[in-house]
Automatic annotation (TrEMBL):
Its EC number is 2.8.1.7. Residues 29-408 form the Aminotransferase class V domain. This is Cysteine desulfurase. The keyword rRNA processing does not apply. InterPro entries: Aminotrans_V_dom, PyrdxlP-dep_Trfase, PyrdxlP-dep_Trfase_major, PyrdxlP-dep_Trfase_small. Keywords: Pyridoxal phosphate, Transferase. SUPFAM superfamilies: PLP-dependent transferases.
Length: 417
């Protein structure tokens, strides 16, 4: 666990910008990581440097060669992060745009007829893409119901809806509202068993900063992440597509490379900033593994991050010191139950004695940054069935500390008291 390794938490926090203070409001605890994680200082420096370079890719000069080398390294680091031994990695406009492109290519490339399959747990990024391209291709879209009590969807629910005619299936790796992970490997295996040719697209946007990504183990055809939620910056998304999905017709420059997913000149700084993230994870994994294998170090970092965040979640739910946890506070309701196992960095709650907006304001006045989620097009799929109009999302990352959790619980205690 990061916090139990002497000096490591201090070293981790030193690598991030604005850990303890907002540049606009001053000192604060940052529990809004699901809305965008803190940025690595190296990412900020890299982004500024590449934004200033005037040269373009593919030219016969040293500057252009350096840009091309940064792109090649970035793509190699992306493939390493995904644990992708085949297929293609690419940069898009955003994680949402990448999901739309993966789903669109799958829907148009799959055999005609059949149906498309998703779940009610999904973020509108994938749910909207599935709905759009089911309509365009004239296929019914079946939406598997998630379990309100546990805040997730299991393999049995998917299996009950599967048929050999399933052409495209989408899976959310972790819900950004409940914070509960989904067993994507088991669901993908069930899909392959019934519909071997089905294209499987995974939304990993919430999961990516909380655990390892392994597309080879999942057996998916597409995976999308949003780097601004995993210590990088806004302005780009990263996707991986299998060889067979890459072979499908897709938008690209006529007579260009057939395997190319990227359109136009992408920002070299995006690739370089993603390499910064991988470098950071490799450094962190080195505190827990002496292996020279970079992938082993990335997985060691993922295990350490999970252990740290589960410790924070346990303290938040069950209490720390003499402070009761959320599970024991009267009038506090947790979206998706109080489970620790399977929860990835998010606790969404509501308090019967105070509205969500007022609770967000109260916590802000106590120096704690959280966010309101409403029964709208973003979160209505989870909040609507519960009959909730709103909730407050508290989202942690591995650089948060138990002391910060205690301060949060103290502020919450003022409300429930």
């Amino acid at each position: 666990m990061i916090a139990q390794t002497p000096g490591l938490m201090e070293a981790v926090r030193a690598r991030f910008a604005h850990v303890e203070a907002c540049p606009f409001e001053g000192p604060r605890i940052f529990f809004e990581n699901a809305g965008g994680a803190l940025r690595l200082k190296s990412v900020i420096e890299t982004s500024a440097a590449y934004a200033g370079y005037p040269d373009n890719q593919g030219r016969d000069n040293a500057a252009s060669a350096a840009l091309m080398a940064a792109i090649a390294r970035g793509k190699a680091d992306m493939a390493l992060f995904f644990n992708a031994r085949g297929g293609q990695v690419f940069v898009g406009e955003s994680g949402t745009e990448v999901l739309f492109r993966l789903v669109r290519t799958a829907a148009l490339g799959a055999q005609p007829g059949g149906m498309m399959l998703g779940s009610t747990l999904e973020h509108p990024a994938s749910a909207s893409a599935m709905s759009r391209w089911a309509e365009v291709t004239g296929r019914p879209l079946v939406s598997v119901a998630h379990d309100d009590a546990s805040g997730t969807v299991d393999v049995a629910a998917y299996r009950a809806a599967l048929t050999p005619e399933t052409r495209v299936a989408s899976i959310v790796h972790t819900s950004p509202v409940t914070g509960m992970a989904v067993d994507v490997e088991a669901i993908a295996a069930a899909i392959r068993e019934v519909a071997p040719e089905c294209f499987i697209i995974v939304d990993g946007i919430q999961h990516a900063s909380h655990g390892a990504v392994d597309v080879d183990a999942i057996g998916a055809d597409g995976y999308a992440i949003s780097p601004y939620k995993m210590f990088s910056r806004h302005g780009y998304g990263v996707g991986w597509a299998s060889d067979r999905l890459t072979d499908c017709p897709k938008e690209q420059i006529r007579n260009g490379p057939a395997a190319n997913w990227e359109m136009g000149t992408r920002d070299t700084g995006a690739y370089a900033a993603f390499s910064d993230v991988v470098d950071y994870l490799e450094w962190l994994g080195g505190a827990f593994s002496d292996s020279a294998d970079r992938r082993v170090r990335l997985e060691a970092a993922a295990h350490a991050i999970r252990a740290q965040e589960q410790g924070l979640t346990r303290a938040m739910m069950q209490g720390a010191g003499n402070l009761p946890g959320l599970a024991d506070m009267p009038g506090v309701e947790i979206i998706g139950g109080t489970a620790i196992e399977g929860r990835e960095g998010v606790v969404s709650l509501r308090c019967r004695s105070i509205g969500a907006a007022d609770l967000v304001a109260h916590l802000r006045e106590n120096g704690i940054r959280v966010h309101i989620r409403k029964n709208d097009h973003y979160c209505g799929n989870v909040l609507g069935p519960l009959g909730f109009d709103e909730c407050v999302r508290v989202s942690m990352s591995h650089y948060n500390t138990e002391d910060e959790v205690r301060r949060f619980l103290s502020a919450m205690q003022q409300v429930v008291a």
